[in-house]
Amino acid sequence: MDADTPLVADCRRGVSGAFETLLDRYEQPVFNVALRMVNNMEDARDITQSVFLKAFEHLNSYDSRFRFYSWIYRIAVNESLNFIKKYQGHDESLGGDHPSPERSPEDAASQADLGQLIREGLMALKSEHRAVIVLKHFRGFSYREIGTILDLPEKTVKSRLFSARKFLRQALCANGAFELTDGKWLKTSLS
Amino acid sequence: MAEDQFELIHQEIDGVNSEVESARLREYFKKHPDAEQFHADLSQLNAVLAQVEDVPSPEGLRQDLLAALTAQRPPRTDEFRQPVRPGGLVLRYGYFLAAGLVLGVAVHAWWAGRESGPQLPGVSGTMAPSAATSHVLEQVQIAQESLHGSVQLRRRQSGYLLDLQLASPRQVDVVVAYGAGSLGLAGFAQTDGGLLALVAHEGRVEWTHEGVHGYTLRLHGQAGDGASITVGFHEQGRRIAEKVLHLPADS
After folding, report:
1. ipTM confidence
2. Which of residues 91-120 of A touch B (CB under 8 A)?
3. Domain(s) of CATH 1.10.10.10: residues in chain A
4. What is the pTM of this model?
5. Looking at beta carbons, which residues of chain B come within 8 Å of A121?
């Protein structure tokens, strides 16, 4: 039984504070999934809100044989994909990065560059490729977990992820994050 | 590069190869430097992606969510239903309509404060100066015997903001119709921090106003040519005012 199961059960029984605890756990991860998918703070905020409202609304239909995080991330990815589909061509850039306050200015600047370049690279990918990169590299899910979240066979996840990496690498080279010098792939803007 | 080796390289990056598979790959690299270079490239990509940190959630998102969830919790019937008014009720606040999208949304003042228009005297709350990029498209005034205020339409990057500043001593039902096209409701706020039951249908939202309050609706998407937003005000089932705000044809 995963740590979310009792909380979900409490939510269903209407126990005060249970959903708030789930919110504490998943607000930032869900927001970041949405942000990587749509590359816009306001849109990611809207998507995050929609994800939790839907999760809350459909909590009774959640199948407890699956892990809660699979379910919430599935909603997050689907909401992001729906948003992208609905507002295709909508391309607002993110207004700056949001480094955590503990970092030095140099680190923060470096992180801002890094975040921005990666986001730009991600936006060059098809949304289905972006989703597997986000789940694998930014959330650390296994092939199987990604398959559960995206409702895909593990083999398809691998194939999609491997293609996505190839395209992301190309995109990062194209946007100047990396360059090929003497056959070596060197970081330029990133330190 | 063979498909098998390609897969093994990716799996090596992900740390899921067995000892035997890793050893096989190392042997393969000895004869295929291009494959080794590819592995190095992917390792570097992996390392770079690992450096990217999560962005903190926007300030106030949690509060907004909790407020919205509070409003979405099914309330007791007698609290939720509006009193039936004589003369027939045009606006039906019954439970979730079968054909319509039903949403209970209420958001704390903080959210609205980020993207709100000018504050009416007497509207309490925490409306901060607008930090978002938006510009006013149209503003209309309301001056009825029992209802005063304004409706302002603003354009933002990904849609529209509709600000309503209303003052009425009696209950007024407000209906905002934005069509069932590509515009969708993305957010709603009562700017003085109150919690409000809002009923959202496809292309239309309704709520009951009383007193002095400001409201902000956030609409997502692009409107088609000739599209408009109609804001109707009803008192005891009788329409007392209606304002039509036109969306720019080039949006």
Report:
1. 0.79
2. 92, 97-100, 111, 114-115, 118
3. 104-191
4. 0.58
5. none
